[in-house]
Every structure is written in C-alpha cells, then in structure tokens.
Amino acid sequence: MKILCVNSGSSTIKYKLFEMPSEELLASGIVERIGEEVSYIRYRSARGEIRRTGRVRDHEEAFREALRCLMDPEKGVIKDPSEVRGVGHRVVHGGEKYAKPVVIDEDVMRTIEELSILAPLHNPANLAGIRGAMKAFKDAVHVAVFDTAFHATLPEEAYLYAIPYELYEKYRIRRYGFHGISHEYVARRAAEILGRPLEELRIITLHLGNGASAAAVKYGKSVDTSMGLTPLEGLVMGTRSGDIDPAIFYFLMKQEGMSADEVYELLNKRSGLLGLSGVSNDVRLIWEEFKKGNRRAELAFRVFAYRIKKYIGAYAAAMGGVDAIVFTAGIGEKSSEVSSYIRRLVCEGLEFLGVKLDEERNRDPEKYGYVISSDDSRVKVLAIPTNEELMMAREVYRILQRGSC
Ligand code: AMP
Q1: Ligand 1: residues within 6 Å at CB?
Q2: Cα 67 to averaged position of ligand 1 atoms, centre (Å)
C-alpha cells in the first residue's frame, strides 16, 4: 500500500512516498518558492532524479507538479494517482482537540483553521497543502498528523502557566509543545536500539534543528516539553530566543519604542543563534567563525548548550531520573565536527547524573549503532536520525488498516 507523507510550509511542500508496511522509501521530492517568480521542483526515486524550474503559483499547482514527477514515465513510481491510498499531512497545531491523527473532513479543516490563532505561521500553510493534495489525490484518505498530539499526555502542572486561570479557560492559553512526531519517533527508536521496552524507560529527547525543543518521555508518554503555547519558548534556536524574561517584551516596547509586532518579530526571526553570534542561524557557518576565534560565535554555542543542559537537569528531576538522552534533527544527529562539539558541550558536567560520553563514538554515531555513551555510562546517550515522514506513514497505515477491518 502506497502512502504519501507531506510537510507543507507557506512556500514549500516536501513529500515522501512509502510502500507500507515494508516501509520502503519509493520517492521523495520538494517544491520550493511556491508563489514566487521562479519555483524549484526536485524529485528523486531509485529510477533517477528530476530537477526543474518553473512558475508554481500555489499549493494546488505544487501538488500537480509533484504528481507529474511521481508519474513520470521514466523516473516515476506510480502510473495513476489512485495508487496512493493514503496521504499523511503534518499539521503543526492540533490544540486540545486532537490527541491522535485524524482522517480529514470539513470539520477537521475548520478546526485547523480556527487553531491558526495559535500557529499563524504554520496552520494556514498546512491547510493550503491539505487542500492542494486533496485535489491531486482525490481517491486517497487524507490524514492530519499533529505536531502537538504526542504532548497531549502532559499533566496539568506541566502545561499550565501561572497566569489567571480564567485566561486558560477563555483562550486555552497553555503549553502545547511541538515536534511531537519527531520526539515520539526517536524515543521509540532509542528503545529499539537499546533493546528495552519503551514502557520502562525515562528518556530525554532533544530535537535540535533550526527549531529546537526538548521532551521528557516517561515510560512512552510525554510528560513535559520545552516549547509552549507557540514554538518560541524553550531552547535557543536558529533565530528564536527560546526562554526569556517576559518583561523583556515590555522593556523593548518602552525603551526602543517598538510595537508588539516588532518585538515578536525580533524574538522569532532575529534572536537565537543568529542574534547571539551575529553570523548566521546555521551552526555550520557559526562553526567556521568559531574556528577563526570569533568570540560571539563561541558565546552562541555556549548559551545554546547551557540551555539544553539546564533542561536535561529539569527533566531528570521531573521524571525522577533518566535512562537515556537522545539527540536528533539537523544539529543533533549529525557526525559533523560542529554536531560532535555541541553534544560534548551539552554532556560535559553531567557525569554526576551518570552520563559518560565516548569521544570516539560521538564523532561518528552511525558507525557505532547510534549509541555515543561509553559502555559503563549509566545513562545511555544516543544520536539518532529523525524520520518524521516515516512516523506519519505508520500512523496513516494504522488508520487505513483499522478502516478495512
Ligand atoms: P532541521 O531543522 O532539522 O532541518 O535542521 C536544520 C539545521 O541543522 C541547519 O540550520 C543547520 O544549522 C543544521 N545542520 C544541517 N546539516 C548539518 C550538519 N551536517 N552538521 C551540523 N549541523 C547541520
């Protein structure tokens, strides 16, 4: 059964086509710069690659382009759109309503739209992707997989903010958390790799990409996570500040004469690693400057790693201990010099907790089966590639199987 998994942004769609249940990746592709003068279309399967430029006006056209690639006589992997039985859509905000993936109907689409108030950058783009894909793949069952859903198990003391309770009742202002698909995937993978049941493990998962978040996964359930009402809270990110004193908002408005929108933009787009380093949001470029002795580059890494370390301490306390720490995503999972350096900075000083990193393994996690702690480390440390699309494909497959029973 062929299942397509889609991640739609405001100007990009990324997709992967899987054969299920074998989990074979049949093809993947991306359409970038949707709505601009020149758009990029890229596609890859075992039968070859396609690279094209052209004008792709909207998400509907983007899916038509994706379909053209998937059905290409030479490099395609399907002959007819109806071969795709299910389409999984990553949806960033599911609010309190969705604790599980759901089959998309008019009702679900309306709710995703209503939740745009909580994710103004993401939910409308996700919805545009859903509408576009529904036109291209008319016969498929479309499923929304929410980034917030895995964190639906947070207890009240972890998800409530200490503001008047009436505001929670009125607006549902609370911690939701994001990157749930990734946190769940790597927590499961870690248990598999360690050969132990997930239900017996207390795991801290660290999704470190351009967006970054930590989660405390106790016996398979998320019990705390660093992102909050929006993806701005928590760890230091590429361009986002993560945790700050909320009074900084007030201070900047007063002292700099900034509007609320301007401060919000500053904290989302001009802060984090970019703001600290003055170099870039990309750790690879900051690393180049760091090697030349750039003090602010070094400072950016220190602040980034220190924040993560604090969350590890907090989550170990929240779970009454920790059995494994998992690094993943663009920065967390790689074997590059900068990734190894960051993992070392994070783990340094955590020996009291039972964390002992193996330097050799940390340089090349894949070579050592993704476990980068030493054999006598009580807490296992892993660096695992995330695979959000595969996690989504499994969910969609599960729903389709249930439907046919
Ligand atoms: P993601 O959001 O998971 O795609 O991660 C994107 C970020 O990962 C980029 O902004 C880079 O900072 C970082 N990144 C990508 N490739 C590497 C690499 N080989 N080594 C270290 N960091 C990387």
Answers
A1: 209-210, 238, 281-284, 329-331, 334, 336, 338-339
A2: 28
* Both tokens assigned to 108: 């679900």
In the prediction, which pLDDT does 118 show? Answer: 86
Give, in order, the Cα–Cα distances in Å from 296 to each of 13, 273, 287, 299.
34, 10, 11, 5
Boundaries of every domain in the chain: 2-146, 197-388
Compute CA distances 132 → 62, 63, 88, 174, 225, whole Å. Answer: 8, 6, 13, 31, 32
Question: CATH topology of 2-146 equal to that of 197-388?
Answer: yes
- If you write DSSP's letter for every residue of 1-22 in order, what string do you get? -EEEEEEE-SS-EEEEEEETTT
Spell out a b/e string for 127-145, using b for 16 or more CB atoms within 10 Å of the CB, else e: bbbbbbbbebbeebbbbbb
Task: Please tell me the total number of residues recorded for the chain in this structure.
Answer: 405
Atom of ligand 1 nearest to the CA of 285: 12
CATH superfamily of 2-146: ATPase, nucleotide binding domain (3.30.420.40)
Q: 197-388 in CATH: which number?
A: 3.30.420.40
Query: Any idea which residues carry the catalytic annotation?
Result: 147
* pLDDT exceeds cutoff 50 at 405: no
pLDDT tens digits along 162-185:
999 999 999 999 999 999 999 999
Candidates 7, 376, 362, 371; CA nearest to 179 is 7
pLDDT (tens digit per residue) in 357-384: 999 999 999 999 999 999 999 999 999 9
